[in-house]
Design a protein that fits this description.
Elements lengths: L1 H17 L3 E5 L2 E5 L5 E21 L7 E17 L3 E6 L5 E12 L15
Parallel strand pairs: 2-6
Antiparallel strand pairs: 1-3, 3-4, 3-5, 5-6
InterPro entries: DUF3019
Protein name: DUF3019 domain-containing protein
Pfam families: DUF3019
């Protein structure tokens, strides 16, 4: 079900850009090591529209919006997030329709294990 929802949102996204609405995230990927349970980051997001909009910022799996913006054409917002998996960031209108969305990815970094090469020099 979630996979179909992601595909649908990816198809809708070009239509939002064609209407002059754009959502931008930085960074768009959060990296963590395999020993960490959550990825922590400070997310900067910006939204630009040709007309004033009343929108709310949502994490796709949350029950309530993080914040709302009323009758704004452009806005910028910073927030601290702790994520364990990829998360869809959405802007929804007052009818709860998704206006713009971006996927925030979580990447797990696994450092390469070092192999000892050569002979040991402590033979004496």
């Amino acid at each position: 079900m979630n996979r179909w929802l992601l595909w649908l949102l990816m198809l809708i996204s070009p239509w939002a850009s064609a209407l002059g609405e754009d959502l931008w995230l930085a960074p768009d990927t959060c990296a963590m090591t395999n020993q960490e349970s959550e990825c922590k980051l400070q997310l900067q997001l910006e939204f630009h529209s040709q007309q004033p909009r009343s929108l709310c910022l949502w994490l796709a799996h949350s029950a309530a919006p993080l914040t709302c913006f009323h009758q704004r054409r452009d806005f910028s917002y910073k927030l601290q997030l702790s994520l364990a998996r990829d998360t869809l960031i959405e802007l929804r209108d007052q009818q709860n329709r998704t206006v713009a969305s971006r996927l925030l990815r979580v990447a797990i970094y696994e450092p390469a294990s070092r192999r000892r090469r050569g002979l040991s020099w402590d033979l004496l």
